[in-house]
Amino acid sequence: MPKNIVQMNNQYIQDEHQRRKYHDEERKKRNRFMGWVLILIILLFILPTYNLAQSYQTLQERKQQYVQLQEKYQQTIEEKEYQKDIAAKLKDDEYAAKYARAKYSFSKDGEYVYTIPNLLPK
């Protein structure tokens, strides 16, 4: 057998409903304010994080560029040493004649020159 529940409607009940409504509205305002604060904090953390990631990427690119430049520098040093060595050797007339004959296919009268690949000096 269902019983009907009747709610009393006196001043106390009305005051309690009004107080609960007021608290609910205050809670909504507070939650909305906290939501905006959280969004602002998230935005404030996103910007420095993005800048940090960009800086890290730039640093990695610079490191890679530094390694490439070191390799190029080492190659340049080796090439310079080779050129110095060739220049010193070319001061010797006998070596200069051999070099010219090998590199540019010069020959003496009555002599035949056969070139062999990868045997010539650079």
SSE string, helices as H and strands as E: HH
**Overall geometric form:** rod-shaped
Contiguous runs where pLDDT drops below 50 for at least 5 residues: none
Number of helices: 2
Radius of gyration based on Cα positions: 45 Å
Q: What summary fits the major beta sheet?
A: none
Q: Please indicate the count of domains.
A: 1
- Count of extended strands: 0
Mean pLDDT: 87
Query: What percent of residues are in strands?
Result: under 5%
Please, could you describe this protein's structure?
This is Septum formation initiator family protein. The structure is a single chain. Helices cover 75% and strands 0% of the residues. The chain contains two helices and no strands. The model has no long low-confidence stretch (mean pLDDT 87). It is rod-shaped and about 135 Å long. The relative contact order is 0.04. It has helices at 11-90, 93-104. The chain is mainly α. The longest helix is centred in the middle third of the chain and has 80 residues, at 11-90. The protein has one domain.
Task: Give the helix/strand layout.
Layout: H1 11-90, H2 93-104
Task: Give keywords.
0% strand, mainly alpha, transmembrane helix, Septum formation initiator family protein, rod-shaped, 122 residues, transmembrane
Can I get a quick summary?
With 122 residues, this protein is an all-alpha fold. It is 75% helix and 0% strand. It has one domain (11-104).
